[in-house]
Specification:
The complex is a heterodimer of chains A (about 260) and B (about 260).
Chain A (H helix, E strand, L loop, with lengths): L1 H20 L2 H8 L1 H35 L2 H11 L7 H12 L4 H8 L13 H26 L2 H9 L4 H29 L3 H6 L7 H10 L4 H22 L9
Helix pairs in contact in A: 1-12, 2-12, 3-7, 3-9, 7-9, 8-9, 9-12, 11-12
Chain B lengths: L1 H30 L16 H7 L2 H34 L5 H9 L6 H15 L5 H23 L2 H12 L4 H12 L1 H17 L2 H6 L6 H9 L5 H30 L1
Helix pairs in contact in B: 1-12, 2-12, 3-6, 3-9, 3-11, 5-6, 6-9, 7-8, 9-12
The chains are: A mainly alpha (about 260), B mainly alpha (about 260).
């Protein structure tokens, strides 16, 4: 066990050691507008993805938990997360197929006369966002579904008895009670999304860079490990801030 | 009003299902297409690209590599995860909370950063890039997960079993292998399966840590450079099939355990 703990710890130390030997790398990040840009892009994409995914997944999880008959629920949920198990690379490639200029979506749109020219979906931020949302809708559906199922139906009955309409019941009872599930899912989305290299690389094209792409570029093309480490540390700091922000709702307990 | 609401609910549900399945269906459908571009219109089924893929030695050797790395690294991760969970659950260690935190830390860090850390470490230690290096990387990402799963399942009733065995004169290694491991079997199995699926799909770490012999996701990545290609569809569909089988097996095992 110990060698692995030591290695795990040391591999993080290494970043710190490289970064703190001098602050040049960090200064470079703050001085160079294109690096800043990557961070801003990353945050924009991640927040957009998280928001869209929550909005899409919540009603879906609700339908699975409340509308679908009980004995079909397990099957329905399993179906809903089946593509979750596809390899990351393959999933992004599939979206490339769907979204490319000659892909299914564009063929359908131009074929039915809705559009005269194909829209550029692949190699754009829209492509990255769609690819991410697809994955995280499944993840969030799982966490929110689990949370909705834990709610006892008596809450809703009590609210109804006290004279609350469906809307008020939802806003004042159900939504606050499922907030932990949403936050856990949203935090996972944030962490996984901001650190992912494949989806933006395959679907986003080279028009704009996100942080992981920038880090990969430092390693791959320039072999600049210290700078890459500094960028990685900055990314980790951002994730930590997000964690502290969500920590109120994330009670990681031993169950 | 009621009917309209139900209709909306049904439409929404189906629309999300369609969104979730769209890429997978397109992937599999056009892997069966005989023409050399996987784009509409669909012209009819053919297994041509599957033959091409299975005849490609680079892809098949990458497949073997992937399976090997997945099995060996998962076994290691589960073994180490079990031992560390056992240690934490049975003995009072100084600063146990801090140490536990350190073990589970990699769960919150991006794979890219973990991969880079290992790469830097190996570079300074002079260890060359290889499949084994990628395997170690997979152990690093899966160990915290195995630890968390197994640790969460270690209850106090098992302590009594172990005490009983010790009272009856079993040496420590016998207690471990004849009592603790069999009692924890479901958790061990679950974490092994999860590790397998993660390792099987993992890309960034393998990409950073291997050179010529590599795993399947990296080989697929190399294929992607040539743009849309029906071979990629075929191999992607195969990988998807394997993952689904693993997932269903996992689900069935969990289901049986819950019923028991």
């Amino acid at each position: 066990m110990l060698p692995f703990v030591a290695m795990g710890v040391l591999s993080f130390m290494q970043h710190g050691g490289d970064g703190s030997a001098s602050f040049d790398n960090y200064r470079q990040f703050f001085d160079n507008p294109s690096y800043w840009r990557a961070m801003v892009n990353s945050l924009e994409v991640t927040l957009t993805v998280t928001a869209i995914s929550v909005l899409l997944a919540y009603p879906f999880a609700w339908i699975l938990a409340e509308v679908v008959p009980l004995r079909l629920q397990r099957l329905a949920l399993m179906l809903a997360v089946l593509p979750f198990w596809t390899s990351y690379v393959v999933r992004s490639y599939s979206w490339l197929l769907v979204l490319s200029e000659n892909g299914v979506v564009n063929k359908a749109l131009t074929g039915s006369g809705l559009l005269s020219d194909p829209v550029q979906l692949a190699n754009s931020r829209a492509g990255t966002v769609i690819g991410f949302v697809h994955f995280f809708v499944m993840l969030l559906t799982l966490t929110i579904f689990a949370n909705l199922k834990q709610l006892s139906p008596s809450y809703r009955k009590a609210a109804a008895d006290l004279g609350a309409g469906p809307l008020r019941t939802f806003l004042h009872v159900i939504l606050p009670l499922t907030l932990p599930g949403i936050m856990v899912g949203a935090f996972l989305t944030f962490v996984l999304c901001i650190g992912d290299y494949i989806t933006p690389q395959i679907l986003g094209g080279n028009n704009e860079l996100l942080m992981p792409q920038l880090i990969m570029m430092q390693i791959g093309r320039r072999g600049d490990f210290p700078l890459a480490s500094a960028l990685a540390i900055i990314l980790m700091v951002v994730v930590t801030i997000a964690y502290l922000f969500c920590a109120r709702w994330l009670k990681l307990e031993r169950s | 009003m009621r009917v309209l609401g139900k209709l909306l609910v049904a439409i929404y549900g189906l629309a999300v299902y369609a969104f979730i399945f769209l890429p997978v269906v397109v992937l599999v459908l056009f892997s069966l297409q005989a023409t050399s571009f996987p784009i509409p219109p669909f012209t009819g089924p053919s297994l041509r690209w599957y033959e091409a893929v299975l005849g490609d030695t680079r892809l098949t050797s990458a497949l073997v590599n992937s399976v090997m790395v997945a099995v060996i690294s998962s076994a290691l991760a589960v073994g180490l995860g079990f031992l560390s969970a056992w240690g934490f659950a049975r003995y009072h260690l100084p600063r146990a909370a801090l140490l536990r935190g350190l073990i589970t830390l990699p769960l919150t860090v991006s794979y890219l950063i973990i991969g880079m850390g290992i790469l830097i470490l190996f570079n300074t230690a002079g260890i060359p890039k290889s499949l084994a290096a990628a395997g170690i990387g997979h152990v690093v990402i899966n160990l915290p997960l195995c630890f968390a799963i197994i640790y969460s399942q270690m209850g106090d009733n098992q302590v009594n079993l172990e005490r009983a065995a010790r009272d009856l004169g079993a040496p420590e290694w016998k207690v471990l292998f004849l009592i603790s491991v069999p009692v924890m079997w479901p958790a061990i199995f679950a974490s092994f399966f999860l590790s397998m699926t993660f390792s099987w799909d993992e890309f960034v770490i393998s990409f950073l840590l291997t050179r010529f012999d590599t795993t399947l996701p990296v080989e697929i990545w190399n294929l992607l450079r040539s743009g849309l290609n029906p071979r990629t569809n075929a191999i992607g569909s195969l990988v998807f099939g394997v993952s689904v089988v693993l997932a269903i097996l996992f689900e069935l095992i969990l289901l049986r355990r819950n019923r028991a």
